[in-house]
Write a structure and sequence with these properties.
The protein is 44% helix and 12% strand. By secondary structure, it is of the alpha/beta class. A four-stranded parallel β-sheet has the order 3-2-1-4, sandwiched between helices. Mean pLDDT is 87; it is low at 140-144.
Length: 156
């Protein structure tokens, strides 16, 4: 039996920890060509050191130019793109009554606008590789987002 990930070119955004790092490790172990991205270059370096051939690309999903560069660099390094996994998400760890407008802007810019920017930057490359891009986006959420502590700010 062959592994469905073998040889696939995958960009994992939000790969410095948690679900993103686990997805990147699994994909690399299954033979995928993997590019990983996050704001933390140090954490990405550790992941790449553990999986030779994986490409680390620092970037911020809240910055359109940054994420466009990450995607372009991933496509150049991998020779195209077959899949993108965006696991970026955040929620301020504070009480709802303490959340400011700036806190909400950070949540929205990261979780909503960031996801849209990743999708927009990767879609043309996925179409070029022969995939039909329908706008389906699968989000990954932590338990604290689905069931926040009473009074805590939930993720979006």
């Amino acid at each position: 039996m062959t592994d469905a990930l073998n040889g696939k070119r995958i960009l994992v955004v939000g790969a410095s920890s948690g679900i993103g790092a686990a997805v990147a490790r699994l994909a690399a172990a299954r033979g995928a060509k993997v590019a990983v991205s996050a704001r933390s270059e140090d954490r990405l370096k550790a992941l790449v050191d553990d999986h030779p051939g994986t490409v680390a690309l620092a970037g911020d999903v809240r910055d359109e130019a940054s994420i466009t560069q990450v995607v372009d660099d991933a496509v150049a390094a991998l020779g195209g793109l077959d899949a993108v996994v965006n696991t970026v998400g955040m929620s301020p760890l504070l009480a709802m009554s303490d959340a400011t407008q700036a806190d909400w802007h950070e949540v929205f810019d990261t979780n909503v606008i960031g996801a849209a920017l990743v999708a927009a930057a990767t879609a043309p490359h996925l179409v070029a590789a022969g995939y039909e891009v329908t706008g389906l986006d699968i989000g990954y959420f932590s338990e604290c987002t689905l069931i926040p502590d009473p009074g805590q700010v939930p993720g979006i």
